[in-house]
Amino acid sequence: MKWLVVTSLFVLASITHSVSANKRVAKPLVQVYYESLCGDSRRFIQRQLYPVKTSPLGEHFYVDLIPYGKASTTQSGDSYTFDCQHGPDECKGNKLHACAIRHLNESMSFEFVHCSMVANYPPNALDECTTKLGVEKEEIKKCVEGSEGSELLARHGERTHRLTPKLYFVPWITYNGIFNEKKFQQSLSDFKSVICSVLKDEGKTPESCEGIELLAKQVDVGSGSESSWVQQPRDALLQLLVTFCFLLGFI
Ligand SMILES: *[C@@H]1O[C@H](CO)[C@@H](O)[C@H](O)[C@H]1NC(C)=O
């Protein structure tokens, strides 16, 4: 009987342990809600997101790009029409990105979006960017011109409309799905320090973050401190279980 208790506690402890171990190796996720003809989106991707993501620090976080922004979607039957903040060409550009994100792998789609956002006119960058990156053009073209592009854009729209709080600026940036005003504001001018602060809050200090001035630890109970709040009780529980098993073993 005693061993049954000990064994089940060990099983429980190792489950808890693997859950918290997973949590530790998981990388933060940066979600960027943007639109193709928006100057601030272009600047953020060009000057902040891209240089950091393609530096050694880039392997410590994931990026999720959601091209839609301050648009609206109207569905009639199976088809969609979109109304974009900077006009129809912006919708075309957003579709182009949505299709590239769907049809290229993660690093290539990131390169593609960057290539388009630094081009003269992002909505027309298909030829230029597929050539530059040496990737297949036809598949993306077919997607943009057909119903697939619309369906993908509609899905980006649903994600954007579901945001809480609602997006009031583009690009809109969340960390692990959570919007934090201070992190968002600072991201626009110093994304690196924000990602280093997010990593630090998760107990990670990559070499590339050394000497970087971090954001003051978020004390507000709201958005910012959620991940450490989740992690600590779990670690405490694990400790308790291990100690308990250890003591039981001695009885
Ligand atoms: C992504 O796609 C490109 C081009 O098709 C290829 O060269 C590269 O190895 C792929 N990367 C990964 C991580 O699969």
From TrEMBL:
<protein>
    <recommendedName>
        <fullName>Gamma-interferon-inducible lysosomal thiol reductase</fullName>
    </recommendedName>
</protein>
<keyword id="KW-0732">Signal</keyword>
<keyword id="KW-0964">Secreted</keyword>
<comment type="similarity">
    <text>Belongs to the GILT family.</text>
</comment>
<dbReference type="InterPro" id="IPR004911">
    <property type="entry name" value="Interferon-induced_GILT"/>
</dbReference>
<dbReference type="Pfam" id="PF03227">
    <property type="entry name" value="GILT"/>
</dbReference>
<feature type="signal peptide">
    <location>
        <begin position="1"/>
        <end position="21"/>
    </location>
</feature>
<keyword id="KW-0325">Glycoprotein</keyword>
